[in-house]
Write a structure and sequence with these properties.
149 residues, mainly alpha, BZIP domain-containing protein, nucleus
Length: 149
């Protein structure tokens, strides 16, 4: 018999919980610098696919919206007000296209990073399962020889 206490109140060395967002998976991910520039807001900091998280709303598929039929405006009705509105609309359309392109580029770079990270994590899970299987095997052999832990 051992002199150690037999009650279940003995202290265990249990690791503290880990914040999943704080874990960085070591993967070889070097995106093309051009892709990063195209995914970054001009004048802002470079897009970081490791840290950026998209909201559910941002990742929802957008509905197909039918374009309105073009209304031909006769030359005699094209006054200063018409041209002012056209110029304003053209700038708004360009801003909208640029914003959509930026978001699509960010999603593409982030998806590429996540695919690599997923592959690395799957490899780690496979190795951990293999280790766990080995440990279970050792414990099972121990328990057969010396009884339950």
């Amino acid at each position: 018999f051992s002199s150690e206490p037999t009650d279940k109140t003995t202290e265990r060395n249990t690791p503290s919980p880990i914040d999943p967002d704080a874990i960085e998976v070591d993967i070889n991910f070097q995106p093309d610098p051009t892709d990063l520039v195209l995914s970054s807001v001009p004048g802002g900091e470079l897009f970081n696919p490791r840290k950026h998280k998209f909201s559910d709303e941002e990742l929802k598929p957008q509905p197909m919206i039918k374009k309105a039929k073009k209304v031909f405006v006769p030359d005699e009705q094209k006054d200063d007000k018409y041209w002012s509105r056209r110029k304003k609309n053209n700038l708004a359309a360009k801003r909208s296209r640029d914003a959509r392109r930026l978001k699509e580029n960010q999603i593409t770079v982030r998806a590429s990073f996540l695919e690599r990270e997923n592959a690395a994590l799957r490899q780690q899970v496979a190795e951990l399962r293999k280790d766990c299987g080995r440990c279970k095997n050792i414990v099972a052999r121990y328990e057969v020889k010396y009884g339950p832990l």
